[in-house]
Write a structure and sequence with these properties.
The protein has 19 helices and four strands. A four-stranded mixed β-sheet has the order 1-4-2-3, with helices on both faces. It is globular and about 70 Å long. The protein starts with a helix and ends with a strand. The chain is mainly alpha-helical. The chain folds into three domains: 3-166, no CATH class; 178-289; 319-462, OmpA-like domain (60s Ribosomal Protein L30, Chain: A, 2-Layer Sandwich), CATH 3.30.1330.60. Helix 2 crosses helix 7 (118-143) and helix 12 runs antiparallel to helix 13.
Length: 463
């Protein structure tokens, strides 16, 4: 059973079409993101179920999920905000089990890879996760699998993950993990190598002290071996990970034969092992450097490509409107201030901006008095660059009814669009809107300040 192949055939296309409308993102970007999300989630599931205890937790999650209606993706999105909220809530539970507090890394990587807003990437991952779990759960129930059976089943998916992971994502997604792994291995091998040399010196001292008694020499040589045998085993483990375990194993075998032979051979073999270990560490360090260099180059190329793509929409300039920008004083931290910094900085960084000075009447989409000037300043920038299109997304805190919060967040995003069109003279087809309610909080909803941060309007420049 090829899980990823089935997800691509049965889920990805329809989910991309529906989710792109809901999130206010292009369908191609959402589809590209899903190509990376499903392999990444499956990889994380395998990691979570790597032992009996972990597999048991995954089984408990599968049994507790409500998968009713998930065969009709269009129906979920067509049924209003409550259906999507239910789907995303289940996805949040999946992410908590699989990634805990490390989900931010996956969200950032997917967002950069597919050119999505961070909030959109987060929501999309939560939407996708239940479909993966549903497919795994169906196989588990059909075949009545227990923890060990689930482990075997997931283990059989490893090769498909490697082949399905987009080439542009794999190097970025796992760069940090690979660097940490290589660094730890190199450090462990270096420390073990030092112990080998020290152990060899101790053995040599024992041999010299016992030179007059051959039998006693053999005994002391064996004792010396115990002092460096454990480091040798550690080196062999490291070397085996990088595909060169044979050298370490042969070294240990030779060391064992030396104890039976003569103490002088022990010293010689220990020196050979230390030399081999030092060479292996050098090879590992060299390969790590090459990997890091290549991956860094890939990241740089990807970032440059994204910057070029976004910067391209600023190529058409209304010179009169651009000159008028010099007369505007943009409040520090405002959406307009963020946009101008982005433009002047060469379109580098996240093309997602937050309206920090914009407020609404409590529980409504009525813009509060003078705070609308922040929208008007953004309109002035959009006038200067007539090819730029934006997606406006509204959010709320988590108080009150979830479905009503989604409606309110979308109404507020729509109010921003209406102001841009009616007062700013921006064409309506340059602006898309979405409301995600309490999804993707940026602050702590248990505090007044955190809830205030979560009640926000974001705007992203579309490529």
């Amino acid at each position: 059973m090829d899980l990823l192949g089935m997800l691509k055939d049965q889920v990805s296309g329809t989910l991309a079409g529906q989710a792109s409308k809901f999130l206010g993102e292009s369908e191609s970007s959402v589809g590209k993101a899903l190509d990376g999300i499903f392999p990444s989630l499956l990889s994380s599931t395998i990691g979570a179920a790597k032992d009996e205890a972990g597999a048991g937790k995954v089984l408990d999650l599968l049994k507790g999920m409500d998968t009713g209606g998930m065969d009709n993706i269009a129906g979920i999105f067509g049924g209003g905000a409550s259906g999507v909220s239910k789907l995303m809530n289940q996805g949040s539970g999946v992410l908590n089990l699989l990634l805990g507090n490390k989900s931010g890394g996956m969200i950032d990587t997917i967002a950069k890879f597919a050119g999505l807003r961070g909030s959109s990437a987060s929501s999309l991952i939560k939407m996708a996760a239940p479909f993966l779990m549903k497919m795994i759960g169906s196989h588990v129930m059909k075949n009545k699998l227990g923890a060990s059976g689930l482990m075997d089943f997931l283990g059989g998916q490893k090769s498909s993950i490697k082949s399905a992971m987009p080439s542009g994502l794999s190097g970025i997604s796992f760069l940090d993990d690979a660097a940490d792994m290589v660094g730890d291995a190199a450090k462990g091998a270096a420390d073990a190598g030092k112990k080998v040399v020290s152990g060899a010196a101790n053995v040599a001292g024992n041999v010299a002290d016992a030179a007059g008694d051959a039998a006693d020499t053999a005994v002391k040589a064996g004792g010396g071996l115990l002092r460096w045998l454990l480091p040798l085993l550690l080196i062999a483990a490291v070397l085996s990970y990088f595909g060169i375990a044979k050298t370490g194993c042969n070294a240990i075998d030779n060391a064992g034969e030396t104890v039976v032979g003569a103490a002088g051979d022990v010293v010689d073999k220990a020196g050979d092992v230390a030399k081999d270990a030092a060479g292996a560490v050098g090879d590992v360090a060299s390969k790590a450097g090459d990997m890091a260099k290549d991956a860094a180059g890939a990241v740089g190329d990807a970032a440059g490509a994204v910057g070029d793509a976004i910067g391209g929409v600023f190529g058409n300039i209304n010179e009169a409107a651009k000159s008028a920008l010099d007369k505007i004083t943009f409040a520090a931290g405002s959406a307009g201030n963020q946009m101008m910094d982005f433009i002047k900085g060469g379109f580098k960084g996240d093309a997602n901006f937050t309206f920090n000075g914009l407020t609404f009447d409590t529980g409504s989409a009525n813009i509060t008095g003078a705070t609308a000037v922040e929208i008007d300043n953004v309109a002035a920038i959009l006038k200067a660059y007539p090819d730029v299109k934006v997606a406006v997304t509204g959010y709320t805190d988590n108080t009150g009814d979830a479905a009503k919060n989604v409606e309110l967040s979308k109404a507020r995003a729509q109010a921003v669009k209406t102001r841009l069109v009616n007062n700013g003279g921006i064409a309506a087809n340059r602006i898309t809107v979405a409301g995600l309610g309490s999804a993707n909080p940026v602050g702590d909803n248990s505090t007044p300040e955190g809830r205030k941060q979560n009640r926000r309007i974001e705007m992203k420049i579309m490529k």
